[in-house]
Design goal:
Elements: E1 2-7, E2 25-30, E3 36-40, H1 50-60, E4 65-67, H2 73-81, E5 85-88, H3 94-103, H4 106-109, E6 111-113, H5 125-159, H6 162-168, H7 173-186, H8 191-203, H9 208-220, H10 226-233, H11 235-264
Parallel strand pairs: 1-4, 4-5
Antiparallel strand pairs: 1-2, 2-3, 5-6
């Protein structure tokens, strides 16, 4: 069994280094024979990345346990993931702590992080709680959008009948695209809502020309937001941008559906 000890010096009488990443040496000891080697820590003088260099060194030496004063959570996770046991809060000379470790005395008072065995499913509690909180925040952030989608589908199915939609959208490419662009320019909301409305329209048999025009103008033309756009960017710019976007959306809708039909057909 091989033990790596962060050290202030290269011999067994040196003191245990109090920081894993920046200790001057690592003393690698065979627990059974007490044969050892001293390896300078390449990260001792580094301003950045000291912990990474120390981790690489210890892992390359194929040690089973690390004894040190302090080890950062990041370095600890990397060592544990490589099957290395870690004892922190260690003080004294190298020879003293090794004898205490062999007798099992260090385990009683020091912080011990056990190595992760191959195939085990041990979960770091801190990481789990952090992930849980992050997932909860993401769910809370997206909840208004999900609620809006559900309400939108309900209102759409309740207020708009198939007969009403059929009277507006005749099935002809040019009129359907124009009407779709008009409706998309008036409606407001996030892009997700346009996909929901588009999907419902397709279920009602409305042409793909109209649906494509609605989706494109929904995100490029905004008559509802035009007063705010005029105030922020100027009246002329807002008018020109919306008019140009309206006609470009019509052209793109017709071109997109025509190309799609050509590919499929």
């Amino acid at each position: 069994m091989r033990i790596a000890i962060s050290a202030d010096g290269p011999n067994l009488e040196s003191k245990v280094g109090q920081r894993f990443g920046t200790s001057k040496y690592f003393v690698i000891i065979d627990k059974e024979t007490m044969a050892f080697e001293s390896v300078p820590n390449p990260g001792a003088s580094s301003l950045h990345g000291a912990g990474v260099e120390a981790i690489v060194l210890v892992v390359s030496k194929k040690v089973d346990t690390v004894l040190t004063g302090y080890c950062s959570p990041t370095a600890m996770n990397h060592l544990l993931n490589n099957g290395i046991e870690i004892l922190t809060g260690v003080e004294g000379s190298i020879s003293e702590v090794v004898e205490k470790y062999k007798k099992g005395e260090l385990m009683e008072n020091m912080g011990v992080e056990h190595k992760i065995e191959s195939g085990s499913s041990e979960i770091n509690r801190v990481v789990f709680i952090r992930s849980l909180k992050s997932s909860a925040r993401q769910f809370v952030n997206i909840l208004p959008t999900l609620s809006g989608v559900v309400l939108l589908i309900g209102m759409f199915n309740t207020l708009l009948s198939k007969e009403l939609l059929s009277s507006v959208f005749s099935g002809n490419a040019a009129p359907d695209t124009l009407w779709g662009a008009c409706f998309g320019s008036i409606f407001a909301g996030n892009p997700v809502n346009s996909y929901i409305i588009g999907g419902e329209l397709l279920k009602y048999g409305i042409s793909l020309f109209a649906v494509t025009a609605i989706i494109i103008t929904w995100v490029t033309v905004g008559l509802v937001q035009m007063p705010a756009e005029m105030a922020a960017l100027g009246r002329r710019f807002a008018l020109v941008r919306n008019i140009v976007s309206f006609f470009i959306a019509i052209a793109i809708s017709i071109l997109t559906v025509t190309v799609l039909n050509f590919i499929i057909g």
